[in-house]
């Protein structure tokens, strides 16, 4: 399997927010090390680790440009140059406070840290990442499309999937830092995780000051390969 790349928002690896997200997911995508021992009140270690198995593969992040393989004729160095140009021409900005919420998905929900408000600067940055980096994206194959569970998508989301390789972009963009996989019920899990967040991260505001390039090699886990500072 060819390497896959993704452009994410990710806190600095030495920040309290990054440490919290890595603890919750059970892996530090900057060092590649497993992080054991976290479970919010009411959950066992084993149950929580199973619940975070899927997002653990991707590392703690918020998606700007979803995972893709490089289109033939393009190189990682070219992708990095283009990403550096986007970052250098984008002023840093405040995302504002983050809060633990349940987001609907596949008949259930998953828990995530989301901004209480999404400033226009974030939507502009996401749109630039989606559009300006799309020249590097190889179209999804049949297996990748099948994983999207097409019957679950709205017509607009299907249009985005066909155009950009990911259904939740532009007007369908929902900024969030994923914390769990799908839950049958999320009501009992929100409060304990919110309490753990408040206890671990004294400042719940997030400043967007860099873009992170993640890579997944040969079907392994995604990890941070480079951060590009905003202007």
Query: Ranges with pLDDT <50 over ≥5 residues?
Result: none
Q: Which term fits the overall shape?
A: globular
* Total discrete domains: 1
Structural class: alpha+beta
* CATH homologous superfamily designation: Cyclic phosphodiesterase
Strand and helix order = EHHHEHEEHHHEHEEE
Helix content, binned percent = 25-40%
* CATH architecture label: Alpha-Beta Complex
Instruction: Tell me the span between the first and last alpha carbons.
Output: 35 Å
The CATH class name reads: Alpha Beta
| Total beta strands | 8
Give a short account of the largest sheet.
Answer: 4 strands, antiparallel
Rg, nearest Å: 17 Å
Strand order of the largest sheet: 2-1-7-8
User: Please, what is the oligomeric state?
Assistant: single chain
Mean residue pLDDT: 93
* Percentage of residues in strands: 15-25%
CATH fold-level name: Cyclic Phosphodiesterase, Chain: A
State the helix count: 8
Characteristic key phrases:
231 residues, alpha+beta, Cyclic Phosphodiesterase, Chain: A, 4-stranded antiparallel beta sheet, 8 helices, 8 strands
What can you tell me about this protein's structure?
- By secondary structure, this protein is of the alpha+beta class.
- It has one domain (4-229): Cyclic Phosphodiesterase, Chain: A, CATH 3.90.1140.
- Helix content is 34%, strand content 24%.
- It contains eight helices and eight strands.
- The protein has a four-stranded antiparallel β-sheet.
- Strand 7 (210-216) and strand 8 (223-229) form a beta hairpin.
- The longest helix has 14 residues, at 187-200.
- The model has no long low-confidence stretch (mean pLDDT 93).
